[in-house]
Amino acid sequence: KTTTKELVASVLSQKYTVAFTAGNLNNHIGVPLTLLRMDKQTQMGIVEMGANHQREIANLCQIAEPDYGYITNFGKAHLEGFGGFQGVIKGKSELYDDLRSREKLIFINQDDPLQVKQSHGGRCYSFGTHKKADTQVQLLSLNPFARVQVEGMEIRSHLMGDYNAKNITAAVGIGVYFGVPWSEIKAAIEAYVPANNRSQILERGGYKIILDAYNANPTSMSLSIANFERFPASHRIAILGDMFEVGATALLEHQHIVEQLETSAIDQALLCGETFYKTKPQSDKIRCFRTYKELASAWHQVELKTESVLLIKGSRGMQMERVLDML
Fold this sequence. Notes:
Helix content: 25-40%
């Protein structure tokens, strides 16, 4: 959500005076704070909304009364609070329900069948690679950064992964809808550089690092691993921390990640946290540590090569960016 918000803000700022959510202040306190930052000069307000239980989005909609809305995805985040994946779909769709009830516009990714289904009956504007999309975007490459093409114009981003290609597509589509010139859409996206532990590429101790340690859930973790496999490198090491707020299926979801790692092109995986420690890896390339302290104590045993690339990811509470201090 935060990356999409920042991309959209960057694009719309090319034409309008924009006020948008600072950081990820997206709850019942953050949303009012964002609204209070808007004044008579504000032409566009971009409000990020976050939730971890039912009716939270509905309540935020009552506060903000949005004229437009976009749900980035229906991933396996906050499963515990929402009551499972179907609960996530129901809870996030409260935004579409609100917009539909007030005959406001819904933005959707035409490539996402769930978005298409959940927005049915509403006024919609779509974007994506699908031929039915109002704004069609062609994905050119994900190696290592997302490159897309729109109307013959190539956009080269500093963002990794298929999930960020979707975020870029949303920013392009929303920019087109609001009449931002193509050249300025391109300039805004190409100038955006991720920060705050989100899909950052760093150099530390002579090694290349993909730092995506701001947060994690089963969907984002799986996508990050798949993207890491495509990253151009001859030696890949994944250092992953527990995923929080997963609920009753936590051990099963962590085991799924372990099984994905076992069949992946990743050379080593170091998994940290109480839940990962309970999984049952069947491959010698995977090692599990109960605590970060145990991981740090065994760090000297990690097989680092001059060509090694490291992926660091985990839920915020795991503070996996601490790994940087060992490099």
